[in-house]
Write a structure and sequence with these properties.
By secondary structure, the chain is an alpha/beta fold. The chain has helices at about 15-25, 25-35, 65-70, 85-95, 105-125, 140-145, 160-175, 180-185, 195-200, 200-215, 235-245, 305-320, 360-370, 400-415, and strands at about 5-10, 40-45, 60, 75-80, 100-105, 130, 155-160, 225, 245-255, 260-270, 285-290, 295-300, 345-355, 375-380, 390-395, 400, 420-425.
Length: about 425
C-alpha cells in the first residue's frame, strides 16, 4: 500500500469532530478505497480539556494551529475553525504557501478570499478543496466541476441555508410568526444566538458566489451579490402565496442573462409544482440547469456534523488518490471578469401586498399606476376583513422589469389610499 496521507485537523467542533469520527470509524474502508490510509497526524482546537464528540485519544495535540502549517509530518490541513479572517485565514494561507493541500468547510473564507488562496495553491502545487462549504453533504461542487462540466449553465438556484428553510417551513406548518420561530430555533440550538448570517441571507450569498464562480468561470464576487433575507416575511404572505399556488423560499440564484451575470439572494415565490417547493425543514437543494443536461436537482442535508464531514472526507480521499484540479475549475489567470446585471434590469413576475383603505375606486387607482408603468396584472386577491380595518390587497404581475416595478411601488406608496408600506416578493419561475 502507498504511504498514508497525513492530516492535520484544525478545529474540533461540530464539523471537525464529525470529520475525526468518520476518519477513525471508517479508517479501513477509506484506506481500501483510496489505496492508502488517511492518517490523522495532529489535532488542534482552543481548549484541550473540552469534552469532544469524537475520540481524540492517542492523537498528537497542538495548541497553535499555525504549527500545523509548517509541520513536516503533515501533508494536508483540514480547516474547520471558521471565519473569513483571523486564525482560519492565516492558517490556510500559510499551509498553501508551504505546499500543503487544504480542505475546508469555510464558505466565508472561500467567498471572500478564495481567489488569493487559489493563487497560492497554484503556485505551490497544492490542492484547495471546499466541497463542504456549499450545501454540506450534497456533492454539488464536484458535480459542477466534473459530472456537469460539459454544460453551459443557464441558471443555478438553490435553497442553501438550512436555518432559513427550517424557519420558513415551521412558520407555515405551525402557523407562527418569524420572531417566534426564530426564538425557538435559537433555544433548541438550530439557529445561532447571532442569527444575522443566516436569516439576513449572508451565508446564502457566500454559497451563491462560490457556485457562480464554478458555473461561470469567474473569481467569487461576493460584493456583487444582491442580498435580502427572510426577516420581513410574514405568515400572511405565506397564506396569500398558498392561495395563489406558491410557497415562499429563500433562494440563492446565479444566472447568465442578456444584461450580464445575475447573483442574487432573496425570498422567492416558487410554484408548488416546482421541485424546490417540496424541500422542507433543514434540507438544502440545488437546481442546476445546463444547456445539454437540462435540469438536475440535488437535495440533502446542508449542515450538521455527519453531512459536512462526509464532504470533507470525500475531498481528502480525492487528494489521497492524487487528484489535481483548479479550485475554481480554471487557472486563476483564466478566470473571467464578467459584467454583472443590475437588479433594476431583472425580468420576472412579482407579488405585491398592500394595506389599503376600504373604499370604492382604490383598486382602479392601483391598476392605473401599473398601467402607467406598462405592467400587466395576473391575479388580484383580497382577504375578507372587518369594517374599518385596513384591507390586505395582493396583486401578482406578469413578467416585467424590476425598474418598472420599483417605480410603480413608489407611486403606490404616495397614494392616499395606501396605509402600509407595499411589500414585494419576486416570483421565480423554475
Ligand atoms: N456546523 C455546520 O453544520 C457547518 C456546515 C457547513 C460548513 N460549516 C463551516 O465549518 C466551519 C466550522 O464550523 P463548526 O460549526 O464546526 O464550528 P464550531 O463548532 O464552533 O467549531 C470551531 C472549532 O474551531 C476551534 N477554534 C476556534 N478558534 C480557534 C483558534 N484560534 N485556534 C484553534 N482552534 C480554534 C474551536 O475550538 P474549541 O472547541 O476548543 O472551542 C472549535 O473546535 C465554519 O467555517 C462553518 O461555516 C459548518
Amino acid at each position: 500500500m502507498n504511504p498514508p496521507l497525513r492530516i492535520g485537523l484544525a478545529g474540533l467542533g461540530t464539523v471537525g469532530g464529525g470529520t475525526l469520527k468518520i476518519l477513525r470509524e471508517h479508517a479501513p474502508m477509506l484506506a481500501e478505497r483510496c489505496g492508502r490510509a488517511l492518517e490523522i497526524t495532529a489535532v488542534c482546537a482552543r481548549d484541550r480539556d473540552k469534552k469532544r464528540s469524537a475520540d481524540t485519544q492517542g492523537l498528537r495535540w497542538v495548541d497553535d494551529p499555525m504549527a500545523l502549517a509548517s509541520d513536516a509530518q503533515i501533508d494536508v490541513i483540514v480547516e474547520t475553525i471558521g471565519g473569513s479572517e483571523g486564525q482560519a485565514r492565516a492558517l490556510v494561507e500559510a499551509a498553501l504557501t508551504n505546499g500543503k493541500s487544504v480542505v475546508t468547510a469555510n464558505k466565508a473564507l472561500i467567498a471572500h478570499h478564495g481567489i488569493g488562496l487559489a493563487a497560492l495553491a497554484e503556485k505551490s502545487g497544492a490542492v484547495l478543496a471546499f466541497e463542504a462549504a456549499v450545501a454540506g453533504g450534497i456533492p454539488i461542487i464536484k458535480a459542477m466541476r466534473d459530472g456537469l462540466a460539459a454544460n453551459r449553465f443557464v441558471r443555478i438556484a438553490g435553497i442553501l441555508n438550512g436555518t432559513c428553510n427550517y424557519i420558513l417551513t415551521d412558520m407555515w406548518v405551525r402557523k407562527r410568526g418569524f420572531d417566534e420561530v426564530l426564538a425557538e430555533a435559537q433555544a433548541l440550538g438550530y439557529a445561532e444566538v447571532e442569527p444575522s448570517f443566516d436569516v439576513d441571507g449572508i451565508d446564502t450569498a457566500h454559497k451563491t458566489a462560490i457556485l457562480a464562480s464554478l458555473a461561470y468561470g469567474i473569481a467569487p464576487a461576493i460584493d456583487k451579490v444582491h442580498v435580502e433575507g427572510i426577516r420581513a416575511i410574514t405568515l400572511r404572505d405565506m397564506e396569500f402565496a398558498d392561495e395563489l399556488g406558491y410557497v415562499i423560499k429563500l433562494l440563492g440564484i446565479a444566472a447568465l442573462t442578456e444584461h450580464g451575470l445575475e447573483q442574487r439572494v432573496h425570498p422567492c415565490l416558487v410554484e408548488k409544482s416546482s421541485q424546490l417547493a417540496s424541500v422542507h425543514g433543514v434540507y438544502n437543494a440545488i437546481l442546476a440547469q445546463g444547456d445539454a443536461v437540462g435540469t438536475v436537482l440535488f437535495e440533502g442535508r446542508g449542515a450538521g456534523a455527519g453531512p459536512t464531514a462526509s464532504s470533507i472526507v470525500a475531498d481528502l480521499m480525492d487528494i489521497a488518490r492524487g487528484a489535481l484540479y483548479k479550485p475554481f475549475t480554471l487557472p486563476v489567470s483564466a478566470l473571467k471578469i464578467p459584467s454583472f446585471a443590475d437588479m433594476a434590469q431583472l425580468h420576472c413576475s412579482y407579488y405585491l401586498r398592500l394595506g389599503v383603505v376600504d373604499r370604492p375606486g382604490v383598486l382602479a387607482e392601483i391598476t392605473n399606476i401599473f398601467k402607467a408603468e406598462n405592467i400587466s396584472l395576473r391575479a388580484v386577491v383580497q382577504h375578507s376583513h372587518k369594517p374599518g380595518e385596513v384591507v390586505q390587497l395582493v396583486l401578482t404581475t406578469h413578467e416585467t422589469q424590476e425598474a418598472a416595478m420599483v417605480s410603480a411601488m413608489r407611486a403606490i406608496e404616495r397614494s392616499h389610499s395606501v396605509r402600509e408600506k407595499p411589500f414585494m416578493i419576486r416570483i421565480e419561475a423554475l
